[in-house]
Amino acid sequence: MIKTDALIIGAGPTGLFTAHQLKLIGLDCEIVDNLDKIGGQCIELYPDKPIYDIPAIPECTGQELTNSLIKQLKPFNIKFHLAERVDEVKNNNGKWEVKTNKGTLFNTPNIIIAGGVGSFEPRKFTPKECERFEEKSIFYSIKDKTIFKDKTVSIFGGGDSALDWAVELSKNSKINLIHRRDEFRGAQSTVNKMNELTKKGKINLFTKYQLKNVKGTKNLESIDIEHDNKEVTNLKTDFVLGFFGLIMQLGPIANWGLNLNKKTINVDTEKFETNQKGIYAVGDICNYPGKLKLILSGFHEGALAARACFKLAKPNEKYRFEFTTSSKTIKNRLGVKDD
Amino acid sequence: MTKIVYIEHSGKSHSINVQNGLTVMEGAIQNNIPGIDADCGGSMACATCHVYVKEEWFDKLPKKEDGEEDMLDMAFEPNKFSRLSCQLTVTDELDGLIVQLPSKQT
Questions:
Q1: For chain B, what is the domain count?
Q2: Is residue B38 in some structural domain?
Q3: Which of A15, A219, B14, B97 has the fewest CB neighbours in a 10 Å radius?
Q4: Residue A2 burial class via C-beta count within 10 angstroms: exposed 0-12, middle 13-18, buried 19 and up
Q5: Residues of A in contact with B77 (CB under 8 A)
Q6: Contacts by residues A287-291 (CB-CB < 8 Å, ≥ 24 positions apart)
Q7: Would the CB atoms of B48 and A263 count as touching at under 8 Å?
């Protein structure tokens, strides 16, 4: 059981700056994120797109913003729990007990949800029958590529993941690559490689096709794919891989007894606290009159939520407001020399 | 104001007057039309404002910009009349536009 003053859910810009604010005022925190990397939407959705409305930064990309925030956290030793999703939140004697999908347990008086628009999950195939074969013959990510050796693998998608795996697995497997249109959006060099392998007969390419149905009793046996012109083709296959990017799902947060408003959580604007004492929501996931879904709003909300955490984390101490320019205590925490 | 017709997957139709300059997505969100999520808020980063444009309207719309077709690869059940409604700006020319909503967005 990990004890901490505050647990932050979400390692996007808001979660990162909230951690900074907590550490500045002398509170511990740890961060959990379902993605396997730090940065949230900035990294997953638009790492290379320029952002123009971060105060004092005329232009920066999602990647650059994330790097700067990580650099700003450097003086503090913050533990990240990546590729973990918070599943359960329970109140025990005024403290929150939190459990992740990997079994990590936290005990904390404060939970700050900086979850953006929820957790990123792979977009799945439409036909309902696919669920039956999921994680057995149908996968949305690859953990062990050796299981595909000498088998037939049907790969769906038009981006880098689909192309990279088609090229990689074609060394030892029979590959069908299926995409809804003729153009691929992956790196040109990989597209060229894929075209070469298609010419050599290493990859069977089906464009303007989408998955219509999957067939099999115990194991997956074949799939039906449908052309834009409605013509259906049946392909024998052992495995199916789908790479359609990620979607955002509110996920387990919906079950924590919070006041939800569509996919957002209602909070007050003093502490950014939800209807549950000690649970706060900041950034894109929170909602209040006048809410703006801007990164800068997340920073403000995180700063205030961090102050609110102080009272529950250190009930016998009084929080004192201090400036980073003048406070010796803060400079010590930052590890900078006072001159 | 320009009339935009949103037809839910169930067939329920909503005829809405949307201010010129807003997007078809914003018209739906501001009027609480169910079936358009718009998770990313219109930055063409999520494909959850996906609509099927009524065939006779499809060619009258401004062409897709770079990136929209890529994003549509990730939409729920895209077809050849698919567009992202955040990329359709409402103008007088769109008066009477009919868009159908997919059964879900995610």
A1: 1
A2: yes
A3: A219
A4: middle
A5: 126, 210
A6: A287/A261, A291/A264
A7: no
All domains of chain A in start order, with CATH: 2-121+247-334 (3.50.50.60), 124-244 (3.50.50.60)
Mutate which: B43, B46, B73, vs A, most A CBs within 10 A: B73
| Substitution target from A44, A45, A212 for chain B, most B beta carbons within 10 A | A45
Per-residue pLDDT 10s for chain A (339 aa) are 999 999 999 999 999 999 999 999 999 999 999 999 999 989 987 888 899 999 999 999 999 999 999 999 999 999 999 999 999 999 999 999 999 999 999 999 999 999 998 888 889 998 999 999 999 999 998 889 999 999 999 999 999 999 999 999 999 999 999 999 999 988 999 999 999 999 999 999 999 999 999 999 989 999 999 999 999 999 999 999 999 988 888 889 999 999 998 889 999 999 999 999 999 999 999 999 999 999 999 999 999 999 999 999 999 999 999 999 999 999 999 999 766
Q: How far is CA A61 from CA A48, A50, A89, A248, B100, in A?
A: 5, 4, 34, 21, 35
- Touching check for B85 and chain A: CB below 8 Å? no
Closest-CA distance, B98 to chain A, in angstroms, reads: 22
**Residue A140 carries which side chain, given as an amino acid letter?**
Y
Among A121, A156, A163, A185, most B C-beta atoms within 10 A, so best to mutate, is A185
- The sign of the CA dihedral B39, B44, B48, B50 is positive
ipTM of the complex: 0.80
pTM, full prediction: 0.78
Distance from CA of A125 to the nearest CA of B (A): 9
Residue B105 domain flag: no
CATH of the domain at B50: 3.10.20.30
Q: Examine residue B60 and state whether it is found in any structural domain, yes or no.
A: yes
In angstroms, the separation between the Cα of residue B22 and the nearest Cα of chain A is 17
Partners of residue A249 in chain B, C-beta under 8 Å: 106
Range of the domain at B38: 2-100
Instruction: For residue A159, give both structure tokens.
Output: 């981006």
Inspect the interface and report whether the beta carbons of A228 and B80 lie closer than 8 Å: yes
**Contact yes or no for B1/B20 (Cβ under 8 A):** yes
